[in-house]
Amino acid sequence: MAREIAEVPAVAAPLCAGWAEAERVASVLRARRFPFAVVCGRGSSGHAGVYLRYLIETRCGLAVSASAPSVVTGYDRPPRMEGALFITISQSGRSPDLVAATRTARQCGALTLALVNDAASPAAAAADLVLPIEAGPERAVAATKTVVNSMVASAALVARWSGDDALIRGLAALPGRLAAASNLDWSAWTADLAGAPAAFVTGRGHGLGSVREIALKLAETLRLPALGYSAAELRHGPRAAIQPGTPVLAFRQDDQLAEGIDALVQDLRRADLRVHACGGPNGNLPWLAPDHAACDPIAMLVPAYRAIEREARRRGLDPDAPVGLTKITETL
Questions:
Q1: What biological processes does GO assign it (predicted)?
Q2: Are 163 and 65 within one domain?
Q3: pLDDT at residue 25 above 60?
């Protein structure tokens, strides 16, 4: 896991500037009009799908839904998807439910696209279009570089699909920011997790996929129950469960939603709760000067990943092979 986190800047760099694969797929999407889009993914790939959803809805103005593969595999009720865009995100491309959902969407009239690390996988074979995320082999059970590259590939695709030059420039700067973020020490946050019965991670908008991803990494790598909530959703009930012994990590990108995240951090601190914030005037974790608001949540993953991996080893846990988990998860 440590080695693969260290590879992140290098494997992301080819996707960040002039990536021909993104332009190839984007040219197909620009030629079509879709009534809606559906994103399909599990676990970390599902979190990359949350990120992609925000990109598509904010840049392309297209409503995006999350796929429920069990509607196809369990209930045998294929939904109507004529003319829609169906995007599958998967590291291995081998989970039977994702393959079946992709194949069914294609049969039901959707244009299907697979974002996969293995371009020869069954999910890729089931799709009309394939966008390989090109992260290279990933052996640790906890996905890191494939998550980053799934998000980078998503941003590169949407930037070219929508003609967003600012996002293209943000991506060009991202490899350097990923490298700089690799040197940031977030051990103050993970030290606060010692003895905690649970933990919370929060943020909004483009940061929500990263929020949910880091909550998952806490659960699978540190065996710590962790919940990732939108900063807005947190106020609608889960706030009552935050206690002095349940630390909160807040991700804050510099965009229209920043004020709400700042207000939440301030409210929690006034209640004498333990909050670690990345970004903005309330940030207490080392961070970089803000750059593109859709790219910064990707870079925020790196110091969080590093801190979690090191904390696992400090506790005598094996971050590369968590108990009860396998690298390729096959569900139906």
A1: carbohydrate derivative metabolic process
A2: yes
A3: yes
Q: What is the pLDDT of residue 330?
A: 67
126: exposed, middle or buried (Cβ count in 10 Å: 0-12, 13-18, 19+): buried
Whose structure tokens read 């420039």?
169
What pLDDT, on a 0 to 100 scale, did the predictor assign at position 329? 67
Percent of the chain's residues with pLDDT above 70: 99
- Mapped onto helix, strand or coil, the DSSP state of residue 33 is coil
Task: Tally DSSP H helices, then E strands, for the chain.
Answer: 14, 9
287, 258 in Cβ contact below 8 A?
A: no
* Residue 56 pLDDT greater than 90, yes or no: yes
Using DSSP bridges, classify how beta strands 129-132 and 85-90 pair: parallel, antiparallel or unpaired. Answer: unpaired
Do 121 and 7 have their domain in common? yes
Residue in the block written with tokens 């030629």: 31
Task: Specify whether 194 is located in the same domain as 283.
Answer: yes
Tokens of 64: 């995006």
Output the pTM of the full model: 0.96
Predicted pLDDT at 323: 81
Do 15 and 133 touch, CB atoms closer than 8 A?
yes
Strand order in the sheet with 111-116: 64-66, 37-40, 85-90, 111-116, 129-132
Place of tokens 């392309």: 60
Residue 239 belongs to domain with CATH number: 3.40.50.10490
**% helix, strand, coil for the chain, step of 5:** 50, 10, 40
Rg (CA), the chain: 19
Q: And the tokens for 193?
A: 């997790």
Q: What is the pLDDT of residues 68-90, one digit of tens each?
A: 999 999 999 999 999 999 999 99
Q: Assess contact for 254 and 279: CB atoms under 8 A.
A: yes
Distance CA 108, CA 78 (A): 8
